[in-house]
């Protein structure tokens, strides 16, 4: 999937999108050990999952999506929930999977 997927990048995340058969959209989140220790990696995953949960019903169907957390320099901070939401939202809109007016922070 990684070779054929279309890539979209932000400062902390990379979005890989591949058109799949007509089926529900599948989403995966990847964090390598280069991102940091288990606490840091799990924090990223929780923040990304929560931001996706708010827009899940608005996502286009029939795609395979992988969100990769990009390694940051040593001592870099974990971004806030608002920053992660903004980056996830921007990448999904850029990929055409989410309508452009959607905000992941207050989608409920």
UniProtKB/TrEMBL annotation:
Cellular component terms (Gene Ontology): ribonuclease P complex
Keyword Calcium: no
Pfam family membership, one: Ribonuclease_P
Coiled-coil stretches noted in the UniProt entry, renumbered to this chain: none
GO BP terms, alphabetized: tRNA 3'-end processing
Leading EC class: hydrolase
Gene3D superfamilies with a match to the protein in the record: 3.30.230.10
Keywords: Endonuclease, Hydrolase, Nuclease, RNA-binding, tRNA processing
EC number assigned by the record: 3.1.26.5
InterPro entries: Ribosomal_Su5_D2-typ_SF (IPR020568), Ribsml_uS5_D2-typ_fold_subgr (IPR014721), RNase_P (IPR000100)
GO molecular function, one term: 3'-tRNA processing endoribonuclease activity
Listed name of the protein: Ribonuclease P protein component
């Amino acid at each position: 999937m990684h070779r054929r997927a279309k890539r979209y990048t932000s400062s902390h995340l990379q979005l890989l999108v591949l058109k799949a058969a007509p089926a529900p959209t599948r989403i995966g989140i990847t964090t390598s050990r280069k991102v940091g220790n288990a606490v840091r990696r799990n924090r990223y995953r929780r923040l990304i999952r929560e931001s996706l949960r708010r827009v899940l019903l608005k996502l286009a169907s029939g795609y395979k999506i992988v969100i990769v957390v990009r390694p940051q320099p040593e001592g870099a901070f974990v971004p806030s929930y608002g920053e992660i939401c903004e980056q996830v939202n921007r990448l999904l809109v850029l990929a055409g999977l989410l309508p452009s007016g959607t905000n992941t922070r207050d989608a409920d």
